[in-house]
């Protein structure tokens, strides 16, 4: 029963990670970033990965897919 609750909590929190902003999808550490957008590290996603570091799966998903999120257009590319 404990395992079921733990898996449910992990699934809900992993799904609760920020994965998209108004400027596009969040990127992982190895993904190509759009040079026209400014990216910042998502503290919420990293906190979720740290809190559930014992599960191994959640931190891997966060680092691979949702580490940095676009927060705006770079200064040189604004219209």
Tell me what you see in this structure.
It contains three helices and four strands, in the order H-E-E-E-H-H-E. With 79 residues, it is α+β, with helices and mostly antiparallel strands. The chain has one domain (2-77). Helix 2 packs antiparallel against helix 3 (57-65). The model has no long low-confidence stretch (mean pLDDT 81).
Strands of the biggest beta sheet: in what spatial order?
1-2
Please trace the helix and strand order, writing H or E for each element: HEEEHHE
The major beta sheet can be summarized as:
2 strands, antiparallel
Rg from alpha-carbon coordinates: 15 Å
* Count of DSSP strands: 4
Distance between the termini: 56 Å
Number of helices: 3
> Helical proportion?
40-55%
Can you give me a brief rundown of this structure?
With 79 residues, this protein is an alpha+beta fold.
Fold topology:
Elements: H1 2-15, E1 20-21, E2 24-25, E3 37-41, H2 43-51, H3 57-65, E4 68-73
Antiparallel strand pairs: 1-2, 3-4
Which tags fit this structure?
single chain, 79 residues, 4 strands
